[in-house]
């Protein structure tokens, strides 16, 4: 990431604040690993030019960083990043700054807010929407079961009975995954993370949608990947932009949600799905299809994994959004020859994925109550979506697209309002968590958008707070 | 990893098998990332010399790999690793080969074996030794609790009440960790893995003990670290070797178990602990102290984290070995200023660590039954240790060190028997899982050792099978 030029020097000597700004810039680039140990720093001349400061400012900054041991001077050759341990930092800037530079801002705020808080920006359902009685019953069932699931490790690939059941469910969606092609993980997030480890080398280029789930961007930063993005339309990625991006950047991997895309709620149209796969074949692109919202669909959209037959598409699912966020189990379905290596990698980095959670999930899915629960949930979500749409539109907040189902509405704000400013105001004044558009946008082109979770937006107090914050921000912007 | 030279060419043209051997060598080095995308391959001359084959063999192998797209030829410059996606492989060789080249062999075999199998090589207690009734009771308690822990996400840093309780426990061991300095993770393994992500860059040098827990080696390979090791004595790392290693390799990080060291059962002596910390300060070394066996101790050994006050030592714990391997919660205690970044990294790569598991653990630890359980467990382990020692010695298998407590015995085999050969024989003929020494040894200097878990070695059938396998292997070796 390049830092914007600093305002031009107005003094003749190196002003302390300018020197510190240059030092801060270098420090951040070392922390977020855009400058690695042993790497040569830009020359004093080019650094001065790119930051718009005098050379003496850079000389002073490099000198102080050398004294701190963060960088080393090699006479005749330049300055190099030292070998001192510098822990990795996800955030490129300081905590508390706008979410566009802090990739886990929305997640952190949503997790910190309690159940009573207003959080239309939150990415999951209210706890009360989950199948409480079913979970209590499953716990009592497990408390009477034989010992092993309560105290022992599971098998490396994960509970065979659960994989059998998942295989059947995937088959119903047209995804041909034998139980041997399925591996259980601790969560959907851990599944995508493990796949990134498996598939990526530092410096690899990875493609995401714009907008996309912000955690993909944060995770890819932790994998030291170069991330590129293509605009997402209401029917899938923009194909000309996709082709252009594949040609230009040659990404190895594309991470996407094909159905009920996060944050837009859009779903892939069959013809676009087909063309995405043709392009993937042409440019030898591997795809991770993260399908954690699958069970919210009224009518199933096409799945890349089904069309492709799990050749170059790897499928990821979980039940965190529909059953319990607390009992964590995810799954990966992929080519049989990759499962063994993925299992090894899971054993080495996580040991085992919760045996107890897998048993609990198997009990819940096997009982038939899950189908009833999901039917009820879909109807309840459809109602919530109608109510949220009406109330948002009354405030001049309009949907970019009307999703068929799911919980997310991707909305445009009125009057060129900046969503990040609004989110900060709402959090400070009303303890209300919003999800500003640029948290989802690699290109930072969604400043006027926000994601609204209909299920978390039923409290009329939300719209009162929203209106007040919008007015305050509009006044401030004017 | 360098491959040993192949036997010298005896034919004039490039023999097919030799060409394939060179191709296999390159392929493995690309898979295990010792050759990265875009990196230049050794020249044809130097490759031919190092593998002891003719240049025409290498020319043929490079040509075929180029045709496969795995490498690229750049005229006038040489051959380069291509940009084709090559998934990461932990094992340097094919599955099924000796454990010294397969870092998760022991884990995989132990997890695949059922409770009825003989598995003295296993790294955990039998399920029946775990506090069954306490867990059943805790599950029933939780099934009657308010909703949130059953269905919702927890807080980013992890259940405050559990962190409070852990803080108190750590305080009793002299480790000054406020609840704000503690973060919950999915497991002890995930805690170490997350810390590696936080602290390491690819290519960093990391120090481990020799022998050490094999998962550290596997995990560090997944982090693309260069691993070096120092011999472990019955009282801690060999200090002159440690100093020499620090001077020569300048590792950034040292991962160790200070008390009840895995696999040796050794514990750090106070004077050695003090000197390790002096050396760490001198060479600016960060230390991860993995203390998952802590509660097995009769008399507590010194903790590096206590002496150091959590400055350069990061403490990791879990209850997988004492309460339940199935309900997974680990914890990290570290400097307050690192917690925020670690929380962000956890959110980005694992989202949240199981809220339900944390509640269950809190219920179990808070009830007082854990103390009773551990008192019983320690006495039972001491008995098992006495029995195992006697029976092993009757077979000529002797302890390298008599541990004060815990479950592990690090043993020498008689007659120069090779433990990997023995482990394979025992698995094939008796479905018995052994843990051969070199699985734990980076320097591969423990071929005559094996780790025995006393708690898993009470069945007399183990010693019958062991004797038969030892005799068969001795005959084969003779």
TrEMBL record, chains A, B:
- Identify this protein by name: GntR family transcriptional regulator
Q: Name one GO molecular function term.
A: pyridoxal phosphate binding
Q: What keyword terms does UniProt attach to this protein?
A: DNA-binding, Pyridoxal phosphate, Transcription, Transcription regulation
Organism per entry: Corticimicrobacter populi
Q: Which domain of life does this protein belong to?
A: Bacteria
HTH gntR-type domain sequence ranges: 16-84
UniProt family annotation: In the C-terminal section; belongs to the class-I pyridoxal-phosphate-dependent aminotransferase family.
Q: Keyword Transmembrane, does the record have it?
A: no
